[in-house]
Write a structure and sequence with these properties.
This protein is an alpha/beta fold. The chain folds into 2 domains: about 230 residues, Aldolase class I (TIM Barrel, Alpha-Beta Barrel); about 60 residues, no CATH class. The protein is built from 14 helices and 11 strands. α3 links the parallel β2 and β3. It is globular, with a radius of gyration of 18 Å. The mean pLDDT is about 95.
């Protein structure tokens, strides 16, 4: 069966599946595996310490696959200057970039003349319309089920996706709560032309920077295992529930300031959990979809299972 959509055409990929940016996790190992399996893998640029480190990651991906991949710029949560990182993506002639958080306009203006395809993550209709107006080639729509930073409104993927599909002309990818072939087909049924997955790719063999304890916590999750933190800061984000996130929520309930929260929500605390496996002294992002993840396959096996399940559904629907 063919899985051609405008997403596969624009990004020159076999399947309309994009790997999320995954701060501190999405490097050459994972990105190359996703691209080699037929999706669009991504490197998380703003988790790297320098433009030279990004250039090295790009070269490593190209040693592992000759297929297209992207660079994710999570500009909203990173205060450091990202212009030099963007210049590396241009110099290395990467095929795509994605932009999450913050105003995407400066990056779009910088990369668009070079023919680099542009994805923008959005959590509201107006954001999607603005991304299209600025020149994005596609938008990824994250519902409140998603892991990491989500929209300020508690709008789910099933409502948000078709709403945005009806208000933009560029392709839409559904994100939030999607881990398998059922999710792929659901996204397509809602009018999306592809999907983005984050949490599902953490629990894979090639996500080597994720500690085994982190992966085990994802596998042990049920539908009540995640919580939304940082609402009081206007930047809600979904993480696995543990003692650390309970303390964050307790501080927030007392009208805690950024100063009182900063050590709890820092990248250092995040990495203690996801890199060191210390799940009592840090936090790990995950979406509600963790409840539907029960194994840690290779990326190739994951793609095979997703497509096999989706093709079985298509046959039932006689499509």
């Amino acid at each position: 069966m063919t899985w051609e959509t405008r997403v596969t055409q624009i990004f020159n990929i076999e399947y309309p599946i994009v790997q999320g940016g995954l701060a501190h996790l999405a490097y050459s190992d994972l990105a190359s595996a996703v691209s080699e399996a037929g999706g669009l893998g991504q490197i998380t640029a703003m988790s790297l310490e320098s433009p030279e480190a990004l250039r090295k990651e790009i070269k490593q991906v190209r040693q592992l696959t000759d297929k297209p991949f992207g660079i994710n710029f999570a500009i909203g949560q990173h205060k450091q200057n990202y212009e030099e990182m963007v210049q590396v993506a241009i110099d290395e002639k990467v095929s795509a970039v994605s932009i999450t958080g913050g105003n995407p306009e400066p990056i779009i203006q910088k990369v668009k003349p070079h023919g680099i395809k542009i994805l923008v993550l959005v959590a509201a209709r107006r954001q999607a319309e603005k991304a299209e107006e600025l020149g994005a080639d596609a938008v990824m729509v994250v519902g409140q089920e998603g892991g990491g930073h989500i929209g300020r409104n508690d709008t789910g993927t099933f409502v948000l996706t078709p709403q945005i599909v009806e208000h933009v002309s560029i392709p839409v990818l559904a994100s939030g709560g999607i881990v398998d072939g059922k999710g792929l087909m659901a996204g397509l049924a809602l009018g999306a032309e592809g999907i983005e997955m984050g949490t599902r790719f953490i629990a894979t063999k090639e996500c080597v920077h994720a500690h085994e304890n982190y992966k085990k916590q994802i596998l042990a999750s049920d539908e009540n295992s995640t919580v939304v933190i940082k609402r009081s800061l206007g930047a809600p984000a979904r993480a696995l529930n543990n003692r650390w996130t309970e303390e964050i929520l307790s501080i927030e309930e007392k009208n805690g300031t950024y100063e009182s929260l900063k050590d709890y929500i820092s990248g250092v605390a995040n990495k203690r959990y996801i890199h060191e496996g210390n799940f009592e002294e840090g936090f790990g992002w995950a979406g509600q979809s963790a409840a539907r993840i029960h194994e840690i396959p290779s990326v190739q096996d994951l793609f095979t299972s997703i497509i096999d399940e989706a093709e079985s559904i298509r046959k039932k629907w006689s499509l």
